[in-house]
Amino acid sequence: MQLRRLHDDRKAAIALLRRAVELGVDHVDTAQFYGDGLVNELLREGLGAQDDVLVVTKIGCDPNPGGPFPMRPAQRPEQLRASVEDNLRTLGLERLPVVNLRRLDRTSRLRAEGDQVVDLDDQLGVMTAMRDEGKLGAIGLSSVTSAALHRALPAGIACVQNEYSLLNRKDEDLLDVCAREHIAWIPFFPLGGAVPGTPKVTDDAAIRAAAKSLDRTPAQVGLAWLLHHSPNVLLIPGTADLSHLEANVDAGTITLDTATLTAVVADRPRA
What is the pTM of this model? Predict the structure, then answer.
């Protein structure tokens, strides 16, 4: 999503993608509503089949250029199908490896109203049909409730992408379900602070102290904790900066001992 910031410097955006490949990144997250197709186009230009990078996109919203919010709900089955076609076109693919259905049950920033209030079964119906048609390989869910996840399990769910971080563990029950069901857990806003007034991992005193003792950054400790917390975690920290990219990837090399793990979660609610 952060690649939108490089809309006036496509060369820098492509260089960032190429560096990610050099560093071993093999999973990227995108959507047609990231920059009204811009990010998909950059991925098409910057990545090739030889790079063996899994491109995961999402549907459930459409671009809303010029609007008060950069996306608008697109939850109806026919809109989901149209969004898949848009992603296929801008990514230059014949088949989308993984498509996340972004539900709007849990967000205060964008709500489904009127004909955008759609039953999950109807949405899964069109997604499984597209999977059978070969337009997508696997189905994921985003911004989903525990009840919705359990309803969707029979359809075969590959991943869940919810807001989650060391400072926001409200979905711990969903993470546990995903671990048991061998479903990848992909936390978005993995460092918190996505909305003004919400806490940021990089500002937390305990995390900053741990980072200092490890000679790392607070952001790296926050990302490393996620990787240590559960084996099914896949990270998607966004960036438009080469140095941040390298630091984010390097977080995967950090080992957190028991004392550090205890210190950074002390006095924090599990959910």
Answer: 0.94
